[in-house]
Design brief:
heterodimer, A: TIM Barrel, two-stranded antiparallel ribbon, B: alpha/beta, 2 domains, 17 strands, globular
Chain lengths: ~400, ~450
């Protein structure tokens, strides 16, 4: 029997196809309105999608690699801060994990950590983050604090061939470590409210993190008491060795982009090897395969919709593209499940159209086929993914002292 | 018509005035507490709710302070969540200009303004000591003058970023394929010894265009900042004559800055205690003060000033006669710290001697001196007088209990303010925070 998988959804602007905003069903003038995001994420929540990721970047052209990104007028531009958008969505949703994209080069790691902890409190244990390494030239100009950093991607396409990119990945690892330490800095039960002795806290159960890294240092404990999940779920999108290692060392979930079943097996093997080498956590790294999907009622309608988009603006994407009926998408997911991935992250080509198709057609088919993990009511995102709640590292320290 | 009263609802903070020992006191961190508080502020038709910011846990003599409420959420993240469970009330948070960068804070506040349909506000503060800086990449290094220069340039940059998208920038015409009117977004640059920014903003113009700016410092630099940038001053001037003088001073500066008097509101912090009679209110005030200043709170307060161990002292006895331990010149950037501590102690001694106060009563006098104590009628009349006689434009009200500390005020005082014709009886549909406060400066004419 095939292993069961989780379904995640990746949200980006009007969808992942650059021409998606021109579709009749698109809502291109509402991309920064609260109602647009509430509708999308509620639909995913109601369908039982396990988590939603939200794209973000700290510049107008975002993560575009197009040479003329700064001047072209036909692309969706303008966005909301993803951590705050996720925070807004927390009280409006019930079960779904909220995983905003965060950059690790500009945002203060302390603010990032406390923002995610607060998201975990507000969502009652559904917070995560997608960690992005590095920064673009325009991001650095917007901030004006750091001259150093990668300029484009190395010609080889490999991170290890550019010291600036390698440094960016080391920094991302440091930021994740700081997020986890700050999340652990208040032990559970540090708030005692002992009226007898007049003590609100047991200060022995709150710990300075004393992070002293290559890129930054943080002395104190978090300002936020420990949150329902203990630590937010850490996720990374990875395409090659250095990011695989970052994920293996620091992440709970990695998103990968295999082009087929054989490729998926190779990626899983490479990640397993990286984990053998660098992973310290006992829990296995969960691997989700990304698929960019366009779904219509018939194969011909799907093909027609896709060529309409492509004629307007051809896509360049890292993910495998699946254009077809809900059954066709289901078949691809079935095969990937067979290859051993833990989940699938679907990137709807058009929003809201392909998200609706996923929630109304794809998910019910997968459920009927017994391919999906059922929601057993586990209260937190971690537990829903079968990951235990981490105990604070500082408790262990005391026991061994 | 009466001058209209404006009110902000301050979530109880992490200091001794928040009473956690009361059996009804709730969580300071659970979202349910914040939701309760926000809905309560909206029920009371407050202009906005107000949250402070945590940058580091309080310490006392090198250890985490354990007597008061401690631990709170990230300001921006909790405000964004509250935007989802409220419709009308403004959402204002304290955010440091020292440990943030303009591009990111402007996009976060712009985001909050979109998510709340125009209810975002920013209490811009400076912070520069090494103790807080130790949690940030930037560290603590700015002296007083520089941090206000940075705050001012920061606010200026933020305002330019918010104004950089014209209202018609997003075309989104599926036929022509033009999404963005590129020339409708202005580049924002600044090169100084403090900033080197060459930015293109990525958040489209938000409902208020410019989120509200609140200012809380009281120094000369602080007043200059307020005159130039702020829409509201969160002051500490609550004695009537003192408040009137502050009001005159600040409002008087506006004309020179080319601003209208109404465009800067002054809302000092205020606490309250109600009773059915004045007598009963005074008794309750005393009880609450004793809960706010427990014996160990009083001793700790003096230990912070003197930097000495006073655990052997009787809180109901007189002030210690010993000299403070000013230690080596502090790394916290106070050049004349010795003199400041000595002069502070001299003042404390003077007050304690003149009014014959014990340690505990002195600390009550300093930290638990409730602004309005009386029957609801008396409190409403007092508040109204401050506003009608131009001592304030209203108050930032703080209760002593989390999260329900303002319920009594909303239930018993607000209706009386309404009867006086000095307070709104409903929210205007679709009003932004600027609309509620009656301050302009946000919306720009289309195409301007």
């Amino acid at each position: 029997m095939t292993e069961k998988v989780h379904i995640a959804v990746a949200l980006e602007g009007a969808g992942w196809h650059p021409a998606a905003w021109r579709e009749e069903s698109a809502r291109p003038r509402e991309l920064v309105s609260p109602g647009y995001w509430r509708d999308l994420v509620r639909a995913a929540d109601d369908a039982g999608v396990v988590l939603v990721t939200i794209e973000d970047a700290l510049s107008l052209e975002g993560r575009s690699t197009e040479a003329d990104a700064a001047t072209r007028r036909d692309r969706v531009r303008g966005r909301l801060d993803a951590v705050l958008l996720a925070s807004f969505l927390a009280p409006l949703t019930r079960r779904i994990g909220l995983v905003p994209t965060v950059t690790t080069t500009h945002t203060e790691p302390f603010h990032l950590a406390t923002g995610l902890q607060t998201l975990d409190h507000s969502s009652l244990g559904r917070a995560g983050a997608r960690i992005v390494a590095g920064s673009s030239v325009s991001e650095r100009a917007n901030f004006g604090r750091r001259a150093d950093g990668p300029v484009g991607f190395p010609a080889s396409g490999r991170v290890e061939d550019d010291p600036a990119w390698e440094a960016a990945f080391r920094e991302a690892g440091e930021v994740v470590d700081a997020i986890r330490r700050l999340a652990d800095s208040w032990e559970d039960g540090a708030i005692i409210r002992d009226v007898e002795t007049g003590r609100f806290l047991d200060r022995e159960r709150i710990h300075n993190v004393d992070v002293e890294g290559e890129f930054f240092s943080i002395t104190g404990a978090s300002i936020v008491p420990r949150s329902p999940q203990g630590q937010p779920l850490i996720t990374v999108l990875a395409h090659q060795s250095v990011p695989y290692r970052l994920a293996a060392e620091h992440a709970d979930v990695v998103f990968v982009t295999p082009q087929g079943v054989d490729d998926a097996e190779a990626v899983l093997a490479e990640i397993a090897a990286a984990a053998d080498e660098v992973r310290e956590q006992p829990e296995p790294l969960r691997v989700f395969a990304d698929l960019l999907v366009l779904v219509e009622g018939t194969e011909s309608a799907a093909a027609e919709a896709w060529s309409r988009l492509e004629e307007r603006s051809p896509i360049s994407t890292d993910a495998r593209v699946v254009v077809g009926t809900a059954d066709a998408v289901g078949d691809v997911i079935h095969d990937l499940a067979g290859a051993g991935v833990d989940g699938i992250r679907l990137r709807p080509a058009r929003l809201p159209a392909d998200l609706i198709a996923v929630t109304e057609q794809v998910v019910p088919r997968l459920t009927a086929a017994g391919l999906l993990h059922e929601d057993d009511g586990a209260p937190t995102l971690r537990e829903r993914l079968g990951l235990p709640r981490p105990s604070s590292r500082y408790v262990a320290q005391e026991v061994s002292a | 018509m009466s001058r209209q009263i404006h009110l902000a609802a301050h979530f109880p903070g992490v200091n001794n005035t928040t009473v956690w020992t009361d059996p009804s006191a709730g969580s300071q961190i659970d979202f349910s507490s914040f939701e309760y508080f926000a809905r309560g502020a909206e029920r009371g038709l407050f202009d906005y709710l107000f949250l402070a910011e945590g940058l580091r846990l309080r310490e006392h003599r090198g250890r985490i302070h354990d007597l008061d409420v401690l631990g709170r959420p990230n300001t921006l993240s909790i405000l964004a969540a509250l935007a989802a469970v409220t419709e009308h009330v403004g959402l204002v948070g304290t955010l440091s200009t020292t440990f943030n960068e303009p591009y990111e804070l402007a996009r976060q506040l712009g985001t909050l303004d979109h998510l709340s349909n125009g209810r975002a506000g920013w209490n811009a503060v400076t912070s520069s000591d090494a103790f807080h800086g130790a949690n940030f990449r930037r560290g603590g290094y700015l002296d007083h003058g520089d941090r206000y220069r940075r705050a001012s340039e920061f606010a200026e940059l933020s305002k330019r970023l918010w104004a950089s998208w014209r209202d018609d920038a997003i075309v989104a015409d599926p036929e022509s394929g033009e999404f963005l009117r590129r020339d409708a977004i202005a580049r924002v640059t600044r090169t100084s010894d403090l900033f080197d920014v060459d930015a293109v903003f990525d958040v489209p113009a938000s409902p208020q265009r410019r989120p509200l700016i609140v200012q809380a410092g009281d120094s000369a630099d602080g007043r200059d900042f307020a005159t130039a940038h702020a829409d509201v001053i969160f002051s500490l001037h609550t004695e009537f004559e003192d408040a009137q003088e502050f009001y005159r001073d600040v409002k008087g500066r506006l004309a020179a800055a080319g601003r209208a008097e109404d465009d800067l509101k002054i809302l000092p912090a205020a606490s309250f205690v109600l009773g059915d009679t004045l007598e009963e209110a005074r008794e309750r005030s005393r009880e609450i003060a004793l809960a706010q200043v427990r014996p160990e709170t009083a001793i700790t307060y003096l230990e912070q000033v003197w930097n000495r161990d006073f655990s052997g002292y009787d809180p109901d006895g007189p002030l210690p006669q010993v000299e403070p331990d000013t230690g080596p010149e502090s790394a916290q950037g106070f050049a004349n710290r010795h003199a400041a501590v000595r002069s502070r102690i001299a003042k404390l001694r003077e007050v304690a001697e003149t009014e014959k106060l014990s340690i505990r009563d002195l600390v009550i006098r300093l930290t638990a001196n409730h602004t309005f104590v009386g029957t609801p009628d008396q409190v409403a009349a007092d508040i109204d007088r401050y506003v009608q006689e131009r001592a304030t434009d209203g108050f930032t009200v703080v209760g002593h209990l989390t999260p329900h500390g303002l319920d009594e005020f909303t239930d018993r005082v607000i209706p009386l303010l309404q009867e006086r014709g000095a307070y709104r009886t409903s929210y205007e549909e679709g009003a932004t925070l600027r609309d509620l406060l009656g301050v302009s400066g946000g919306r720009v004419a289309a195409g301007a």
